[in-house]
Amino acid sequence: MRHFRSLTAASSAALFHRLPAELSAASAPELQAVALGGTLYTPANRPDLVKDVLRQRDLGAVSMVLCLEDSIPDADVATAEENVVSALATLAERGEDLPLLFVRVRTPGQMLSVARRAGDATAVLTGFVIPKFDNESGTGAAFLEALHMVQAELGLDGATPGRHRLRVMPILESPAVIHVETRAAALTNIHTLLAANRQDILSVRIGATDMSSAFGLRRSRDLTIYDVNVVANVIGDIVNVLGRPEGGFVISGPVWEHYSNTERVLRPQLRLTPFVGPHEQELRRRIMTANLDTLIREIELDLANGLLGKTVIHPTHVSLVHAMSVVSHEEYLDALAIAGNEHGGAAASPYGNKMNEMKPHQAWARRTLLRAEAYGVAAADVTFVDLLEANMS
After folding, report:
1. Where are the alpha helices (DSSP H) in 243-392?
2. Which of 128, 206, 329, 393 could be disulfide-bonded to 254 (CB atoms 3.0-4.6 Å)?
3. Is residue 16 classed exposed, middle or buried when 0-12, 13-18 and 19+ CB atoms within 10 A define those classes?
């Protein structure tokens, strides 16, 4: 797998200064975590999961989650479990390149059950997604204990030749994390638990829907999650505790849950200026019609706030996340000039439009170069509009 793999060689050469790296379930976990991109959730009770996974792979999805939790009714859980086990077996038999594939489970027992029934077919899995993760109720530790049992029983602890380590992505969405009076202690305890099991953790995800629900709120398509102050405060605290350069984790942006066209309340947030040509103006019209301009704004704010990648529930959102994650040529040259230069000092940037300070920007430079490996570097004259147009055509 590779981001933008559907582009022709000529298009890739024109758009990229540096191409994205190849990815697989055996890739370095640091690269996997950064490269997840728009992680597409699909309900596990869909009638043909195999076809869904292969179709979305061909459309550009690099990571997918087969969801056994909130996306399916309680009455469908048993059938959905069988569906997942069957799909994993078929995908394993086919032996094709697949997205980084995860199963979102409800309980530690369900994780054990699905993994044991899938058996060797777990080889096509990158891991599991854990809902409502915390260390206050004991659920986080119970899920990790179940993971260790699966790893030991199926040889997925990274010690068996030819088998990659199975990892988890915890979702932070429990009341202890949401409520201000318990948040600091809950996040500190979560960090302690995750740090003690670091080799088992791929990335951390944010459950903004449950966070909003805790206050009886639901944002409209005209507002980003950062406009909902009580939720934005939780996100800021999560990044503060879990996203620090020293000892932190990759944290993914929260779900964008809108996808159909509806009447607008606020004016569009996508400027006309970048869309100069007739084809680009048509692209802007398509984005506006689908109300995706606010999603673009939210992805910008995710990146500005230290989040990378995003949970999405519609295939049209995947290409937006990926295009917005490509490192610009200017960012890349800045990162190269700064990385490793730890003796201090400052210098004009390669583009001659800003000051690069060597010590303060080290962590940013390292993160930028890892993102460049995952998503590639745009050519000098290429903008996000060019990448969107190529990726959405």
Report:
1. 278-289, 293-304, 315-325, 329-338, 362-375, 384-392
2. 206
3. buried
